[in-house]
Design brief:
The chain has helices spanning 9-26, 32-52, 56-63, 71-78, 120-125, 133-148, 166-170, 173-186, 201-208, 226-234, 240-247, 251-256, 275-293, 298-310; strands at 80-84, 97-104, 107-114, 153-159, 191-200, 212-216, 220-222, 262-264. The chain has 316 residues and is α/β, with parallel strands linked by helices. The chain has 2 domains: 6-53; 60-310, 2-enoyl-CoA Hydratase, Chain A, domain 1. Strands 1, 2, 3, 4, 5, 6, 7 and 8 form an 8-stranded mixed sheet that branches. It starts with 8 loop residues before the first helix and ends in a 6-residue tail after the last helix.
Amino acid sequence: MRSYLDFEKPVADLDTRVEELRALAADGDPTSSEELTRAEIRAERALAELYAALTPWQKTLVARHPQRPHFSDFIAGLVTDFTPLSGDRLFGEDAAIVGGFARFRGSPVCIIGQEKGADTEARLKHNFGMARPEGYRKAVRLMELADHFSLPVISLVDTAGAFPGVDAEERGQAEAIARSTEKSLSLGVANVAVIIGEGGSGGAIAIATCNRVLMLEHAIYTVASPEASASILWRDSSKAQEAATNMKITAQDLLRFGLIDAIVQEPIGGAHRDPKAAIMMTGEAIASALEQLGNMSPEAIRESRADKFMAMGRKI
């Protein structure tokens, strides 16, 4: 059953009417067919108009939509022969970051990402996609293996941020994030990151410091969540909408500032309305990015990546 956000109520009403007319048409009502066609056109037009003018806060809600495709959905739709690897070989396993090796369009790759979970049990298992230090150290281990075997790295980012708990801080959360970021920057193989939902703070940067950074059309990428930023700036988390607008967290703003390289178009109404199409378009964007980087030497890969991040801020 489709879940609607608060601002989608007009579309929800139209969709309900469409379903009613479809039921009547299925029962053989001869007068409902033309009305059904008109209702479908109205619903599609309303959805397109709504999503063409989303505010940054509305995009935040879309990026967090519970039915938006998660890392596991992209794994199922993008790659084959996925073999996950567990543990950081130092402390233990962290289920918030999932990674391993697979074939992307027939070629071997390393793929890493945050998994939020699609139901209560999975969300608890994966800690809502918020990794502890062992998750980032696992990511480093995977990237080192990818570098050793000359395999490109694909990062799928979807996290509100690194886990802020005491146990994570005791085990060196900041150091683990820094090491993962350092490893991303130093790889001699091409790496491509896609922000598929939320790209939150250092938790995202740790695996998104890549040659190419792509964002889904309605994803967000931010130094801190709008709620956290509002609490810091105004000591009032209810000003999250204002913070979202002022922080410039949308793909459109970030592309304009040169902080990302491309926007991956989503189906009308967001990736959650047609996950298969969203995953397919993401695959095309990743393939294009890897093709652009395919003939570069390890030295050129590192230099290009360093130049990209050193140039950030000069266009703002």
